[in-house]
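Recap from last week: sequence in, structure out.
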Amino acid sequence: MFELLFLLLPIAAAYGYYMGKNSYKDRHASKKTEQTQNYLRGVDFLLNNKKEQAMDEFIAYLDSAHPTFESSLALGNLFRQRGEVDKAISLHTTLANDEQSEPYENELAQIELACDFMSAGLLDRAEAILLDLIEIPRQRKSSAQLLVKLYEQERDYNKALEIGLNNQDVLSQSYLSHLAQYYCELSQKAILDNNLKEAFKLLEHALTIHPQSIRARLMKADLLIKERKSGYQSKVLELVSQISSIDKATGTFCLDLIERCFAGQVNEQYKKALEELTSKTKSAAVIIALSKYLETYESRSQAQEFLLGYIKERPNIKLFSCYMGMRSKDPNQEGQSETIMQLKSIVDAQIALHATYSCVNCGFESSMMFWQCPSCRHFDSIRVKHSIDGD
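Predicted structure tokens:
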């Protein structure tokens, strides 16, 4: 009997090993299935533009998966994006101080830790990390970009320019355009201090680093108009020509410069400037200004024909409102002028309801122009709206 039991022991051990292995496989398969389902649900939420739910699922996926350096780094980033900065800081600090990791992995974790501190408003701690990392060649670009962003957040434009200029060989064109904006901000401060010479100098620096800068040209033209030195009109018109050539959406800004440049001196040069600006920008505001010139100094019928041509080409209710205003003055419309003006007032009320500007980055809308979007804090992202009730 005992001999028989002894012979059965290997069979029992083999059976136990087999059952245990199958049980482990079942648990592993179940865990993998759960991870996959979390991942697929996250993708589904992302495709359906449900960012919060997608982040929840991706965090669950990364948290349940076997942790690697990359997955841990990504998990910390998701925590930061969801506003759980304390969790992100804790995770990235652990990764940054992990002696088992490669040096470049510790550096990447420190970059993310600096981002966490910036997100939390702990700018001094982020600055300390980045000033160390910028000395490491492989981290120079990322550190320089973040330092520029950090100093911008502090509105310390001189430091932002110092970092940007010292590292412009590794910065992208978008960051160089930001440096031009910083020069413009400093120029604006110089204008408030009545230091126009310094303001001009700073604007020239902006154009040197970013030759396509619209803002620097607009500010330069504005200063020329304020000073009104000999020959300023030709210089302003040259800047207007450059601005409208660089960006066709600048019609309203250029029109304001032309109006102020001539300051009531309506002549052929003024008309020529409006015609050139109209051909370049097709701006409703500029078309209306030119049609009013034609109405006043040439003929109303010519002005109406001019307006109708553009209304047919690009329907716009601002142009239509101006056209109705002209028609109400037509002697042939006797008895209908009041009705036309009532319709015009309805159209004008509709125009007044809509914002003039919008941010191409976040969609923020405003009736005022901002060079830095108040919502997403992007520079040079606010544009004049082009639509049936826009410019």
